[in-house]
Amino acid sequence: MNNIIEKILDHRSIRSFEDKLLSEEQINTIVECAQAASTSSYIQAYSIIGVTDPDKKAKLAELAGPQSYVEKNGHLFVFCADLYRQDMVSEMENTDLSESIESTEKFMVACIDAALAAQNAALAAESMDLGICYIGGIRNHLPEVSEILNIPHRVMPLFGLVVGYPKNRSDKKPRLPLANIYHENGYQEDKQEFIGQLGEYNKTISSYYEQRTKGKRKDTWTEQMAGMLGKKSRLYMKDYVEKQGFKKH
Q1: Does residue 171 surpass a pLDDT of 90?
Q2: What is the rounded distance in angstroms from the CA atom of residue 45 to the CA atom of residue 81?
Q3: Model confidence over 117-157: pLDDT tens digits?
């Protein structure tokens, strides 16, 4: 155990922030830490957009939920899969890279690079005793988000990351049991064992919600997942991804 591990294990999403902006030094440090993350083949296939304009933040908050904390925070970062600069490479080196750039593999590389960078940014922010929350809701309306943020071809906003000074620290949510996540020497797919583990996890989650809401809520994890996955959402995504020049083959 050390300070880094303690900080990682103490993570919780923060959705209420003090009315205090991050300093330029804090923002730059968070971005530099994001850039220090591993990147596939040195491609660095992501970009980060910092949103400070109050009108833009308000519009993004509405599109994302609405979620008020997308508007009211210390800083809003939007992480994007980005192969736009690879088009510049193609032009500068006078070689056609479109087949590679438009492959499913490079789309995955860009998404993974962005996610790795974002988690570095999140850990850096939390090490400063700031709170963070990922915002997947920006994918609800990507054409509108793209217009607000002036997103070019070969770039796709993936998620937001709000950072700020916590007003209230939420409870830490219990994660799935380690045995349900970690497998040795191959995937352990014993169905009954899986169901048993998830059953125990359901009891943990139900108890967590019951205590947190003083009995007003007692739903389980599998109930949540069935409800969420049973709703059709963001069905436009395949068309949007291809329109932006990703994943054509």
Answers
A1: no
A2: 6
A3: 999 999 999 999 999 999 999 999 999 999 999 999 999 99
Q: Which two tokens stand for residue 69?
A: 């904390």
- Tokens 């960078």 map to which residue? 117
pLDDT digits (tens, 9 = 90+) for 3-56: 999 999 999 999 999 999 999 999 999 999 999 999 999 999 999 999 999 999
| Rounded-to-integer distance, Cα 113 and Cα 61, Å | 25
- Report the run of H or E that residue 54 belongs to, with start and end: helix 54-63
Sequence length of the chain is 249
Q: Which residues contact 212 (CB under 8 A, 6 or more apart)?
A: 171
DSSP 36-52: TS--GGG---EEEEEE-
Specify the residue for token string 């209230």. Answer: 168
The one-character DSSP state at 65 is: S
Gap between the Cα atoms of 114 and 78, Å rounded:
10
> Kind and range of the H or E element at 158?
strand 155-164
Please report, as a single letter, which amino acid is at residue 84: Y
Q: Quick one: which of 209, 141, 118 has its CA closest to 110?
A: 118
User: Does residue 133 sit in helix, strand or coil?
Assistant: strand
Q: Which residue has the tokens 């999140």?
A: 122
